[in-house]
Amino acid sequence: MKSWIAFWNILKKDVRNYYLKPPNISWGIIFPLSWTLMQIIRTPDENVLGLLPGLISMSVLFGTTSMLAVTITFERSSRSFERLLLAPISLNTMVLAKITGTIIFGVFNALVPIIFASFFTDLPALNWGAALFTILLVALTSALMGLLIAVSAKQVFEAQTFSNFFRFPMLFLCGLFVPISRLPVFLRPVSYCLPLTYGNDILNGLITGINTLSAPLCFGMLSLFSVVLFLLCKYNINRKWIG
Amino acid sequence: MSRYIPQVLGVGMLQMISVNNLKKSYGDFCAVNDISFAIQKGEILGFLGPNGAGKTSTINMMTGLSRATAGEIMIDGIDVKRETKKAQAIMGIVADESNLYNEMDGFENLCFCAALYGMPKSERESKAWQLLAQFRLKDAGKRPVKAYSKGMRRKLTIAAALMHAPQILFLDEPTSGIDVESSRQIREMIVELKHKGTTIFLSTHYIEEAERACDRIAFIAAGRIVASGSIPELMNSVSHGHTISLVTAKNAEAFVDELQSCFEASKVTIQSDHSLVMVSERRIALFPVMEFFHEKGIDIYEARELRPSLEDVFVKLTGIESSVLRKDKEMGKRQ
């Protein structure tokens, strides 16, 4: 019960202090909207549905990694994060509370291109439950990547630089806009080491019916990435923040 | 499990904190070097030393914010290294700088801090208003913390540490760089908490603060505890003998030799025309001295015992000039 009170209040505080602030709301809407519009204008003949999986993945990736890395680094530089480390709550509770807010933010980011696409085309009768679950897993792995960045960064600008260092290569390596089969052979193994590849593949299968890997394998890989990233985050927090 | 029954020191005296051979190294640099001390329940221990002496490193290890390189820390029988979260549940920690959430108001900050300790909503809200009133911050309770003055932030930080009614309070430089009135309020609050039975670990570089509030003091310099004890114990450790100072109505220089022969055990020194000092290995009885001057027709305006100040003791024991501490103090005020 005590852990639940702490978890709920950390989540509520983050949502109020960061995610519901006007700049973040507008960023969360404008950013995916701009990407979607840019893609549609660039390739007007292309089927909007074909772009949707990539746009969803990208919106979640950018929304979650930025927010978590920046908010945690901000709290650490203002020393308010110390309060969480000094509180009698387990590291698991603290990490889960911090990433839950980001995951919710990421899911809302993912809804923007979906809603926008619905104005241009009829959305297929896809399995929305599976789509939401995939988006949640993509948001979870991305949030954990954001946390890993936050552990390494000391300043907010460092967190932003590190985030971009990871995110932009991922856009091109995860099959979001260029299919992995069209990538140079030496880059393909790298693609399969990135969680977004699997999330994007499931979404592709659900929305366009074209996927290259089996859905159970992708779900399994995303779950595996989540566990490994979670453990890695915990290890790094223990090592770097409780020095 | 390393839980043990706290050592019984006497009637109603339990050892709340026990630190043994604590060490913290950062690479080759040793910030805390093999220190040991204990604090009894309801006692205030002052940890006095200049900036960089190892005070904050010690607090960080004791509160679980950093890991000790070696040594043992027991808080109310809980091994901090093994059961950090359990120990943190009974601690209140006031860091050397504000660690509040600037975007939130004072009331929200207090409620959030209490929520981290699992306090139910109604309880934390009533406690928050109670503490805001106690710290004279009630009117500012709904103002964002970023609009608070430094003194107000400091008081709110202390209030936040008290929300869950901790048994042990760690105060790291609680009055550093804040106004006189806020400092006075904080010192009063420290004494009040002690009377309520809270054990307090007070780290400071203000000698006067340690002298006024603490039961015992430990001097720390370059990561080592140089001396520790109650204020009289520390004073006695450096002062050998008894010194009295006399202010006379007339020049008493002509009677110094006679005075010296009457009080052979004492060494008499003229300080100025109307003042002299007597130093003795044993206690000097004042009445015979007064009688001596009365017989000579010299009135005594003032007679007082001269004792070394805590600052003198600090300088003598640590070898650190008090100007170093004063410099730290000025820096604290400027911050």
Which properties best describe this structure?
heterodimer, A: 243 residues, mainly alpha, 10 helices, B: 335 residues, alpha/beta, Rossmann fold, Alpha-Beta Plaits, six-stranded mixed beta sheet, five-stranded antiparallel beta sheet, 15 strands, elongated, disordered N terminus
Written overview of the protein:
The complex is a heterodimer of chains A (243) and B (335). By secondary structure, chain A is an all-alpha fold. Chain A is built from 10 helices and no strands. Chain A has one domain (2-240). Among the domains of chain B are: 8-90 and 167-236, Rossmann fold (3-Layer(aba) Sandwich), CATH 3.40.50; 240-305, 2-Layer Sandwich (Alpha-Beta Plaits). The chains are: A mainly alpha (243), B alpha/beta (335). The interface between A and B is medium-sized, with 24 and 29 residues.
Fold blueprint:
The complex is a heterodimer of chains A (243) and B (335).
Chain A: H1 2-19, H2 22-42, H3 48-77, H4 81-86, H5 91-117, H6 128-152, H7 156-173, H8 188-191, H9 195-207, H10 215-240
Helix pairs in contact in A: 1-5, 2-3, 2-5, 3-5, 3-6, 3-7, 3-9, 5-6, 6-9, 6-10, 9-10
Chain B: E1 8-10, E2 13-26, E3 29-40, E4 44-48, H1 55-63, E5 70-75, E6 78-79, H2 84-88, E7 91-94, H3 106-115, H4 121-134, H5 150-162, E8 168-172, H6 180-195, E9 199-204, H7 207-213, E10 216-221, E11 224-230, H8 231-238, E12 242-248, H9 256-262, E13 266-272, E14 275-280, H10 286-295, E15 300-305, H11 310-318, H12 322-334
Parallel strand pairs in B: 4-9, 4-10, 7-8, 8-9
Antiparallel strand pairs in B: 1-2, 2-3, 2-5, 5-6, 10-11, 12-14, 12-15, 13-14
